[in-house]
Amino acid sequence: MHKSKIQLDIELDENKIPEKLFWSADDGGILNEEAKAVFLSVWDSKKKESLRIDLWTKDMPLDEMKLFFHQTLITLSDTYMRATQDEKMTGTMKDFCDYFAEKNQIKKDNFTKR
């Protein structure tokens, strides 16, 4: 059996606030790439709940955080569609993504492919 490893390394300040984030994914050819934010969700089937880690560095610019959220919402709606084949709810989610972008003044050229 093949095992794959994804690793996060976080450098914290004295108050345990992330200063630097690095990630590696052996199978993806990624080694110690720096990132400004990470959202990680894991499903606990026993408890029927989502567990998550949301981290961002203290120097993450607000405009980039809004863009990161927007792109994450879009990819979540794409993932929802692949997982459920629920076109109606996926469309509703995409509509919300458009609304989110409009309210946060995110330009169309910053959108991920839909």
The portion of residues forming beta strands comes to: 25-35%
Total separate domains:
2
Whole-number average pLDDT? 94
Biggest sheet architecture: 3 strands, antiparallel
Q: Structural class of the helices, strands and pairings?
A: alpha+beta
Describe the structure.
This protein has 114 residues and is α+β, with helices and mostly antiparallel strands. It folds into 2 domains: 1-58, no CATH class; 61-105. Helices cover 35% and strands 32% of the residues. The protein contains 2 helices and 5 strands, in the order E-E-E-E-E-H-H. It has helices spanning 62-84, 87-103, and strands at 6-12, 18-25, 30-35, 37-44, 49-56. The strands form 2 sheets. The chain has a 3-stranded antiparallel β-sheet, with no helix packed on it. The chain has a two-stranded antiparallel sheet with strand order 4-5. A hairpin with a 5-residue loop joins strand 1 and strand 2. Helix 1 (62-84) runs antiparallel to helix 2 (87-103). The longest helix is centred in the middle third of the chain and has 23 residues, at 62-84. It is globular.
Keywords:
114 residues, 2 domains, three-stranded antiparallel sheet, two-stranded antiparallel sheet, 2 helices, globular
